[in-house]
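STRUCTURE:
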């Protein structure tokens, strides 16, 4: 495999609204991010994936874009954006922008024109039909909204304010490629591509993801924009399988660098999806992660537990109270020793947790409110109580509470009223405390990044082979990473019980662990105890 810089890098995701406010309006912004670049540099990451900062009415916090080539005043100016790119690059950090081109905001000039009349030149930039079909929106309700003006329905797979673009229209594709090149010329390091598996949709056949023209469009996009630049491109593809992942990321196909697959992130979804979560099937989780480790041969994997749409993993599948630090380190070690590019979501590196807000109104997420209306009020398939249990456990706002910087009021995030409640545990869980504690979660992440990038084991971690051990064990996740030089063994206790170590090994060296006093002679692992050992090579 030809080596690429993004094989070796580690990415840090920033949700700008919740990262650092600089002007006291309670909303994070670009100058705030710039003021925190040295902190991010300390962690050792190479890339920042920046969730959208473009002009937007903020129905979906920026994933509803009304001007792709301007920055929303709430986040700052284009000059601020150029400064962020420059300042980050000075620190050896590339800025990857969020490309949201399955849909625009309904306030985008293209849509304002499109809805004016059926013969408007922009009519076919979107998907209009005389009658709706049965498609439903991810955010609840029908995926069709009637427009009085021209007496037709337009399609939106997300909020009403997020009309789907018609990718079959070559003019739409050309406009998007032009915009992408405009950003690439500004010096960004690549794109994260929002629901990119949707752009090949065949709406009349109700084929939404993995549509017939998807890979044709991606190869055209590659050819006309980033293909001849050495940048990182990662597609968000909830529908991907390993086979499909190879189609996206096999370099010979000239599509993307890698994708986010979500098979491990939907394993606990119940009858009504994430709103009815079921207990984690740990053996199944290990099988899924192992499948993604062994079935991507030509292409490339991403690795993540968290992002701005997912609940905090230590609250979801760990113990975010008594064993918060141990399990946060366990999730980090287990993920970062796998093969693929690791992504760290803001706050994950200090063990931030979910939050339980009192009332539905306290939540801001358009998905929570849209699905509540659909599941509880309209279709009545879930009770208020059952739905709220789903929100507490799985709602996206769990990941969107403001970054916790220090013990000062509002966790140092803002001097104003925060747009979303700050987790009351910020006096204990915050960056300042983490940086002053050598045993904090932060330093485990820093050490893992250093191990991946700058140690004797880098090639083994990045390119080595993978083998799952004890695959049916209900408590232990045990796997090997090996090549001609090293044989590394990862043993993780995924439970809060003391469990016997059922694997024989002859350790030469302990690389990293989440307890200060692990000894190869011990026969038990303590709650969430995780170690990485260098074994005597075969
Ligand atoms: O998310 C895609 C998406 O469908 C998620 O919202 C996810 O499926 C859902 O939360 C699971 O219940 C992308 C962005 O990451 C998300 O923030 C946007 O809201 C969405 O697309 C629309 O742009
Ligand atoms: Ca602000």
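SEQUENCE:
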């Amino acid at each position: 495999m030809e080596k690429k810089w993004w094989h070796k890098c580690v990415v840090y995701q920033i949700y700008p609204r919740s990262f650092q406010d600089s002007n006291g309006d309670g909303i994070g912004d670009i100058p705030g991010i710039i003021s925190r670049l040295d902190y991010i540099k300390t962690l050792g990451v190479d890339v920042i994936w920046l969730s959208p900062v473009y002009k937007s009415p903020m129905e979906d916090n920026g994933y509803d874009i009304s001007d792709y080539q301007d920055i929303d005043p709430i986040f700052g100016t284009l000059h601020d954006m150029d400064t962020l790119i420059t300042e980050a690059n000075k620190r050896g950090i590339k800025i990857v922008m969020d490309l949201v081109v399955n849909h625009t905001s309904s306030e985008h000039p293209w849509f304002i024109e499109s809805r004016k009349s059926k013969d408007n030149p922009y009519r076919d930039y979107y998907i209009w039909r005389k009658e709706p079909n049965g498609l439903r929106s991810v955010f609840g309700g029908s995926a069709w909204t009637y427009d009085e003006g021209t007496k037709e329905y337009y399609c939106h797979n997300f909020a009403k304010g997020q009309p789907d673009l018609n990718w079959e229209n070559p003019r739409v594709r050309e406009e998007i490629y032009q915009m992408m090149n405009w950003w690439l010329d500004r010096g960004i390091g690549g794109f994260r591509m929002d629901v990119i598996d949707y752009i090949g949709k065949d709406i009349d056949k109700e084929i939404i993801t993995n549509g017939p023209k998807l890979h044709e469009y991606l190869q055209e996009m590659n050819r006309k924009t980033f293909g001849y630049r050495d940048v990182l491109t990662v597609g968000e593809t909830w529908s991907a399988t390993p086979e499909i992942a190879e189609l996206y990321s096999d370099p010979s196909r000239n599509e993307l660098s890698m994708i986010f697959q979500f098979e491990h992130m939907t394993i606990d979804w119940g009858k009504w999806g994430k709103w009815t979560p079921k207990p984690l099937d740990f053996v199944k989780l290990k099988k899924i992660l192992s499948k993604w480790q062994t079935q991507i041969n030509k292409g490339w994997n991403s690795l993540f537990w968290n992002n701005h749409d997912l609940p905090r993993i230590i609250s979801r599948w760990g113990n975010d109270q008594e064993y918060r630090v141990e399990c946060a380190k366990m999730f980090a070690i287990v993920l970062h020793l796998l093969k693929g590019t690791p992504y760290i979501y803001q706050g994950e590196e200090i063990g931030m947790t979910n939050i339980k807000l009192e009332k539905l109104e306290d939540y801001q997420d358009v998905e929570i409110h849209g699905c509540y209306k659909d599941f509880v009020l309209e279709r009545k398939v879930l009770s208020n109580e059952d739905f709220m249990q789903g929100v507490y456990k799985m709602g996206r706002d769990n990941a969107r509470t403001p970054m916790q910087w220090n013990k000062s009021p509002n966790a140092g995030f803002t001097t104003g009223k925060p747009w979303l409640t700050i987790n009351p545990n910020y006096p204990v869980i915050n960056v300042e405390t983490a940086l002053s504690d050598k045993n904090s979660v932060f330093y485990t992440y820093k050490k893992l990044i250093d191990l991946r990038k700058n140690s004797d084991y880098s090639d083994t971690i990045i390119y080595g082979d993978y083998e799952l051990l004890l695959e049916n064990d209900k408590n232990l996740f045990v796997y090997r990473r090996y090549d001609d030089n090293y044989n590394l063994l990862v043993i993780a206790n995924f439970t809060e019980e003391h469990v016997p170590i059922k694997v024989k090994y002859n350790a030469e060296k302990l690389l990293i662990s989440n307890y200060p006093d692990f000894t190869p002679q011990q026969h038990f692992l303590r709650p969430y105890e995780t170690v990485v050992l260098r074994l005597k090579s075969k």
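REMARK: The pocket of calcium ion (ligand 2) is lined by residues 21-23, 25, 27, 29 (CB under 6 Å).
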